[in-house]
Amino acid sequence: MFGKLTWAAVPLDQPIPLVAGCVAFGIVGGIAVYVVLKGWAPYLWREWITSVDHKRLGIMYALLAMVMLVRGFIDALMMRSQQAIAAGGSQGYLPPEHYDQIFSAHGTIMIFFVGMPFVIGLMNFVVPLQLGVRDVAFPVLNSVSFWLTASGALLVNVSLFVGEFAHTGWLVYPPLSEIAYSPGVGVDYYLWALQISGAGSLMTGINFTTTILKLRAPGMGYSRMPIFCWTALSSNLLIVAAFPILTATFAMLLLDRYLGFHFFTNDGGGNPMMYVNLIWAWGHPEVYILVLPAFGVFSEVIATFSGKPLFGYRSMAAATLGICMLSFMVWLHHFFTMGAGADVNAFFGVMTMIIAVPTGVKVFNWLFTLYGGRVRFNTPLLWALGFMCTFVIGGMTGVLLAIPPADFVLHNSLFLVAHFHNVIIGGVLFGAFAGYMYWFPKAFGFTLHEGLGKATFWCWLVGFYLAFMPLYALGLMGATRRMQHYAETEWRPLMLVAMAGALVILAGIALLVLQLFVSIRNRARLRDATGDPWNGRTLEWSIASPPPPWNFAVLPQVQGVDAYWNMKQAGRQAARQLPFETIHLPRNSAVGVAIAFFTSIGGFALVWHIWWLAIIGFVGLLVAALSHGWIIDREEEIPPERLAALERERST
Description:
- The radius of gyration is 25 Å and the shape is globular.
- The protein is built from 19 helices and two strands.
- The N and C termini lie far apart (about 65 Å).
- It has helices at about 15-40, 40-50, 55-85, 95-130, 140-160, 185-215, 225-260, 270-305, 315-325, 340-370, 380-400, 405-410, 415-445, 450-475, 490-520, 565-570, 590-610, 610-630, 640-650; strands at about 585, 635-640.
- About 50% of the residues are buried.
- The longest helix has about 35 residues, at about 95-130.
- The protein is mainly α.
């Protein structure tokens, strides 16, 4: 009746996952009980859980990313501590099979459930505001996208307590991920969690591509869009093009595992290297799906805190689109060692060097924007400056790895691990934190504590260099990745330095949480009544903080790049012109939560081969989706009188 699920699936004999699972679910359960006892549940259901407001969904995406950042960093801390002590005769405290699950879960969580939700959350919150519109093109689909992502994250965390996670690395290469070598449920948890969250990401890509191409304020042509909107457009075009590849690839691997197909096994004519081609045809564009919005954040931050227009606006937009196109022409540099031949390797090596050119254009544009400006060293700008130094190093090591002979030496070493973290932490995470601290006052109406923000930045920056620069040296010394133990005791001092770096980053995470707590406690003193605490340049700063559900009482008339800056220079106020007209807003919808609930049930059932429960999940999903189509009253009206009253209240 319960398929492969038995009491043996609960790791009663493994204290680390058992205690971790109990603590995690205890915290979640405790929060749920506290919310109910406080009487907050109706408010949360009405204002957040069933909301289709792009701003609230963006905030929930960011919250999910931060929670999963803590979860993924715990895995990183366990890996670093294991490698710090497991030298020579010491075996450390993590057995090999558990260590394999940890590094697989770490990569999966950080890419799919930290990086993706963080950048999508920023795009959700900011893009409609910068475009001068009231919502995304498909608000209910936006809610479904978020809850599917949350469903995938839930499934990954369930594997901590019931069953196991994949032992295969974060991209589950065959043949190791095939049923013959991974007969357990770890790979199945991975595949179903990412199929579910990947569907949500694809919906997001469709939604935001449509929003940016079809919904913009009057007068905002493509040549007047903020650079963050350009980077969001490029990122979402890549999602639309790349995520179907991921979905199809995982579908074929699922067919191999569940129905005995042979897409990626040598039996029956399959080819494991075809999986590697397909996964990286998605995987390298994925890097730019993550980092392009971060580039957009840095463009906004640097222009604002320099008090100048962004240098080279058109070249910046062109470089963004150039990266978007070139990102599909470099995937094979991830496996030069497969034996494709010198000509193929040379082509992809040259293309990898070429894609560095538009990135270099961006760096010089940011530097020229800073040059001669009245620079204010607020925390968001510190993240941008730290990014430029760190990302340039990561880019140079990437160009080195693009040389096939060098890659043959370094491919499976810790040098590659250091390079990847150099661009993802220094690019994506630094960009996410810069955006979080930059737009936080717009979301909540008060600024974050500046001193703690700067302390957070310095802990992350110093911690990063301590944690990953030693890995470059270790890689050159011959240390391979995915090591649970190593015999060369001379590597241990550098491993200890890397462990110290991880602890400094841990202090940065603790300070990030403390900053949020202190800022909420002191929100009255940190209140921003202007809606424009940074003297911003784009339209989101023209409205109240936090923004009303309709964003703009009257859609602004855009007359150039940096629309709000132009309005301020001309002495005009944005979006307060009369007369007001009736606004139609979409009503809250529970369809996203319902779909995610039944999808989670169905995903868990498919992992454990509980077929009757899988059928219930599928039928529930179908009913929830179809029932939404029968709802007639989907909008509420905001009359002009209410708009006028709120605008008068804001202006007094």
